[in-house]
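ingest -> validate -> predict -> emit
validate: passed (alphabet ok, no gaps, 326 aa)
predict: started
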Amino acid sequence: MWSSMPAPWQACFEEAWEAYCSGSIPIGAAIADRHGTVISRGRNRMHEAEAPPDQICGTRLAHAEINALLQIRTADSGELKDLIIYTTTEPCVLCFGAIAMSGIRTVRYAECDLNRSGNAFIRDRNLDVRQAEHRLGEIQRVPRTDYVLRTMDAARAERFLDREGGDYPQAVELGRRWHASGRLAEAARRRVPIAAVVDEIAAELDRMQRAFFTGKGERGMDELRIVKATDGDVERLARMNQELIEDEQHENPMNVEQLAERMRGFLNTTYSAWLFTAGGDVKGTRWSTMRASRCICGTSSSAGIAGVKAGDARRSTCCSGSSGRT
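emit:
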């Protein structure tokens, strides 16, 4: 897993791990040029008393993205537009505001954050914001879960994890296990390299997913994977949606490009899309939208976005179930 991660993502997770090891919130950020060369990096330093030059610490403003941005020494809008900021967790309003004011126009994040997302702030601003592949978000959620359990009282921690558990249930479960066993804390004490930690988390998540599906007793289910769709999946979702519209002779007049734009808009709000894949093929999709600590499950296929409003959907505590083409 680690060796396949681009350099900016490796820098982000290195910073997040260093934050975890230092007692701060495990979030890291990096800024790279259009060639992928990292030119700045920073991490959360809220609970620390010292910071390198051009970074801040010991304040609730000492976020990873802020510390990465503070090291950029140019006001040239042309240069800034070529930069990309990467972060392990979806930026909050503070960080999105700083990014917008900095002149950087491209944002990539691993883990979505339903509690502090600044996406509403940037909807009408000219920022290109996309989530990375689902696995990176899962990996980030494991130390975040451990951190929440370690630093919050039990009731508050459970409320927090209840809100956030829907997108990464297995990662939250793994974070709970490793918190109970002290596994991450011990790795931090021994300063285990983040590359080894990431690979171990990825391997354990794979084992958990295989165990979950093989335990269902249905032949072939061990090949099924459920991944959260990102902006890169929009075209595929749109094509599937159009096929379903045609099959059901729906009156929706949108073409693939229009459907893709609409779905991209959904993904940039409170909606999430899930892909059910096996053997490299998408077998079905699932759309849901989060409200407070519960989710509103939409129809079981991409046609739900075309013809069903969230208010028509049934209420559930999780987005279980799938459908689509098999």
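Residues 194-214 form the longest helix (21 residues).
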